[in-house]
Amino acid sequence: GVTGSKTSQVFSVALAEVVSPTVGKLLYLFTFFTISTSFLGLGFTLKEIFHEDYHWSNKAGWFATFLVPFLLLLVVRKGFVDVITVTGALASVFVLTILMLLFYKAKKKGDRKPEYELHIPKPVSVVILLFCIFVAAYTVWVYGARLLG
Q1: Is 9's pLDDT higher than 70?
Q2: CB atoms within 10 A of CB 49
Q3: Which residues, at least 6 apart from 103, have a Cβ–Cβ distance to it below 8 Å?
Q4: Measured by CB atoms within 10 angstroms of the end CB, which terminus of the chain is less buried, N or C?
């Protein structure tokens, strides 16, 4: 609301122009740390899933998790927000699929009674997963087209 028609995809850019350069530098730092800590947390988790569950080497897991989005950012050079959106959509579907598979495998092969149970029928999980795949595909279609052209 403060920036009016100058609002951009990254709030700190537009707000820095309206408020002051000093506030802009603080906002840039805040934005950088917000995005990077989230990416690092999710990225290291995904790398560990590749390593521990799928028995990939540490280098292969690191490459798939960190280097692919970085190279995409370098090659495309269209927009940081678009790259984050596309990689986030793809990673989210991948992580959701892994979590659902782990949920049902733990339910089937668990050797102790859990403290609480979730009763989610498989068809409901399939509908949720298909919806998420549809949303991710749409996101990749829209933002991927912007990245490529």
Answers
A1: no
A2: 18
A3: 118, 120, 125
A4: N
**Residue 2: φ, ψ to 5°:** -70, -35
**Tokens describing residue 128:** 């949720």
Q: With pLDDT > 70 as the criterion, what percentage of the chain qualifies?
A: 87
Residues 90-111: what's their mean pLDDT?
85
Q: At 6, which amino acid appears?
A: K
* pLDDT 10s digits, 64-91: 888 877 777 777 766 677 777 887 888 8
**Residue 77 CB-half CA count within 13 A:** 2
Buried b / exposed e over 78-113, threshold 16 CB at 10 Å, is eeeebbbbbbbbbbebeebeeebeeeeeeeeeeeee
- pTM of the entire predicted model: 0.59
Structure tokens at 148: 């490529």
